[in-house]
Amino acid sequence: MSIFGDLERLLADLYPYRIPLTLAALTFAAVIGAIVVRRGWHRPVRSWVSGNPLPAGILVVVVLAVTLPGGYYLLSPLWERTTLVEASPLDSVTVARLEAEGTSAPSTGSAAGSAGDPSASELADGPELLSRGDFEGADGFHFAEGQALIVETAPDEFLLRFEEFSIRNGPDLFVYLSSDPNAPSDDAVKLGVLKATDGAFNYEIPAGTDVSTLRYAMVWCDRFGVLFATASLTA
Predict the structure, then answer these.
(1) Is the separation of the CB atoms in 192 and 207 below 8 Å?
(2) What does the alpha-carbon distance between residue 186 and residue 11 come to, in Å, rounded to a whole number?
(3) pTM listed for this prediction
(4) Model pLDDT, residue 11
C-alpha cells in the first residue's frame, strides 16, 4: 500500500496548484482528442466496437466494476464528515470555579475556556491540564485545526482530549502520541481510531505511559502511511 501513500503525498504537494493544473489537463485532453479525430486514429477502435458489441460491452462492464468500487473505497472518506461532542473532564473544574466565584455554571458546551484558564488546573481534587497544543495539517491538502490537551484525571491517569477539532477525512485514520512529529515513533502509543472529523472528544491513555516524552498528538493514516495532522504539546 506504500505506493498509494506516495501517490497521496504527491497529490497533496500539487493540491495548491489544482486549478491551473486542472485547466492545463483539460486543455491537453482537448488537443489530443482533436488530433486523434483529425487523423482518424479512433476509427479502428470504433470499427472493432461496432463489429464486436458483446465483447466491447463486457469490457466496459468489467472496467466499471473495478474502477467505480475501487475509486469509491479510496476517495469517499475525503468528503464524508462526522461530528462527535463528548464531555470534557475539565467541566467539573469549570463548575467548581464558577460556583466559587458566585457565577452560574453553563448548562452545555465544551471546556475550551476552562482549559485555557490557569486557575482551573490549580484547583485541588480535580482534573489538571498538563499540556496543550494546536493542531496543524501536514500540508495544504491535509488540513486540520483545533487543540489537543493532556489532562491528568486522577493520580497517574491521563487522557488526550481534542477540542474544537476539524480535519480532512481519510481512510483508516488513527490517533497516536509520539515522540516524533512526522510519523509514529518506535515508542508511540496508539490510542484508537479517529472518532470523528469534527467536534470534541477524549482518548484514554494507557496506564504506565510516560506522557512527558510523547510530546506530539498525531492523526495518522495506517493504511497508506500518511500523516494528516500533528499538535505539539507544551505545558
Answers:
(1) no
(2) 28
(3) 0.66
(4) 65
